[in-house]
């Protein structure tokens, strides 16, 4: 039965590609992306997906892949030791199946989004129980195609690690991550496995440690298919984007045979802020185009934005709003417009820029 469902999904993908032949810049992004055999998608929040029909319709129309904002994190799937709940994640998986959307699983191992009882890092036994429970549940899923096996294992900066080689968060050993990847492959080798992280979009301390870790996993014989490049980007007229450094990161990953995938893209504008929303939206759009051109030149085939509408962007949530530039200054909150559609789900210049980048991709 599992196999039949998988074949059906394959057919559905090809229908998407066939339907994509007559597209223009205003076509759904999933169709424009399909003309280049690529996928566009977004992180979705189940809390809104099943309450706001306009939001659900937008996701179904635009996305050929989605990732749950929080429904597959440890606190959602294993809130008590050994007690698994998949109600909210399954609801998203069913939405995906109904709308012919692939599901990217985020995430099996992170230092956040955890229940209070879980230490960081968890013991290997806890990891094995968790991976068995969660990956096992989706083993025969016709929509779940890939996992962020580990998320943000590199320390935030070099002062917060005891590990000069791999720069891992305190307490995390490379062998634990290797064992996690190897165990995951024993549970379900049919999915794509990613190591996912932020702050690697340039030649930075974090990107160099991340690449070392990818290399280590490869050399240890672990299954690692992709590198999730989150891409929560900050653009500003006060500083540049390290395009050359980012291209080298992408090239190195391709050389290692580990496919770069954009997993959490959004664009925040840093000070000095422009004097109008129109100018801000243009800056965000230019940022998307510039960034995606570099990605597509390196053959990236999957782009997931972290949300689709400014209505639900994480960066406007009080827990996450950047303190200095925005939270301390309520008069500029309306400048947090990092996504392709606005609060009213109207397309922004950024949507156009994403469409253009897909259309011009080699
Ligand atoms: O579920 C409660 C809800 O019942 C309550 O009304 C609301 C009040 O604020 O809080 C809700 O919980 C929030 C949860 O997201 C669900 O929306 C938490 O406060 C909030 O802290 C939590 O934040 C999420 C965060 O990861 C931690 O899990 C963000 O939405 C989510 O966008 C963010 O995503 C991360 C990626 O996983 C990894 N990369 C960075 C990215 C952005 O931080």
Structure description:
- The chain is 41% helix and 14% strand.
- It has 362 residues and is α/β, with parallel strands linked by helices.
- The chain has one domain: Glycosidases (TIM Barrel), CATH 3.20.20.80.
- The longest helix is centred in the C-terminal third of the chain and has 21 residues, at 277-297.
- The chain is globular.
- It binds ligand G3I.
- Residues 69-70, 73, 112-113, 151, 198, 230, 264, 314, 319-320 line the site of ligand G3I.
Summarize the structure.
The protein is α/β, with parallel strands linked by helices and 362 residues long.
Q: What is the strand arrangement across the widest sheet?
A: 1-2-3-4-5-6-8-9
CATH architecture: Alpha-Beta Barrel
What is the 3D form? globular
Number of strands: 9
Q: What's the gyration radius in Å? A: 20 Å
Helix-strand makeup class: alpha/beta
- CATH class value: Alpha Beta
Task: State the CATH superfamily name.
Answer: Glycosidases
Percent in strands = 5-15%
Tell me the distance between the termini: 38 Å
What's the CATH topology label?
TIM Barrel
Average pLDDT confidence is: 94
Number of spatially distinct domains:
1
Bound molecules: ligand G3I
Binned, the helix content reads: 40-55%
Q: How many strands, what sense, and barrel or not for the largest sheet? A: 8 strands, parallel, barrel
Q: What is the succession of H and E elements?
A: HHEHHEHHEHEHEHEEHEHEHH
How many individual helices? 13
The low-pLDDT segments are: 1-11
């Amino acid at each position: 039965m599992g196999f039949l469902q998988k074949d059906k999904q394959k057919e559905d993908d090809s229908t998407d590609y066939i339907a994509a032949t007559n597209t223009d810049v205003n076509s759904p992004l999933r169709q424009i992306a399909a003309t280049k055999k690529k996928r566009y998608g977004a992180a979705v929040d189940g809390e809104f997906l099943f309450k706001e029909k306009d939001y659900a319709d937008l996701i179904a129309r635009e996305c050929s892949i989605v990732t749950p904002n929080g429904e597959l994190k440890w606190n959602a799937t294993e809130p008590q030791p050994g007690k698994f709940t998949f109600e909210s994640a399954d609801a998203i998986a069913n939405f995906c199946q109904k709308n012919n959307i692939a599901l990217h699983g985020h995430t099996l191992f992170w230092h956040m989004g955890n229940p209070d009882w879980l230490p960081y890092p968890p013991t290997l036994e806890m990891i094995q129980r968790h991976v068995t429970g969660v990956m096992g549940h989706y083993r025969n899923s016709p929509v779940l195609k890939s996992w962020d096996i580990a998320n943000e294992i590199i320390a935030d900066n070099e002062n917060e690690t005891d590990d000069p080689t791999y720069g891992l968060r305190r307490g995390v050993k490379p062998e634990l991550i290797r064992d996690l990847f190897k165990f995951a492959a024993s549970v379900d080798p049919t999915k794509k496995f990613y190591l996912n992280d932020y702050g690697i979009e340039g030649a930075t301390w974090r990107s160099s440690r991340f690449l070392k870790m990818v290399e280590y996993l490869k050399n240890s014989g672990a299954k690692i298919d992709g590198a999730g490049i989150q891409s929560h980007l900050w653009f500003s007229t006060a500083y540049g984007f390290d395009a050359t450094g980012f291209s080298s990161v992408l090239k190195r990953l391709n050389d290692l045979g580990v496919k770069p995938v954009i997993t959490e893209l959004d664009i925040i504008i840093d000070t000095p802020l422009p004097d109008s929303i129109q100018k801000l939206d243009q800056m965000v759009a230019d940022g998307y185009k510039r960034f995606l051109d570099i990605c597509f030149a390196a053959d990236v085939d999957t782009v997931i934005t972290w949300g689709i509408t400014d209505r639900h962007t994480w960066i406007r949530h009080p827990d996450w709003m950047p303190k200095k530039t925005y939270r301390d200054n309520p008069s500029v909150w309306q400048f947090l417009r990092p996504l392709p559609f606005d609060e009213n789900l109207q397309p922004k210049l950024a949507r156009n820029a994403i469409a253009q980048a897909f259309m011009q991709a080699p």
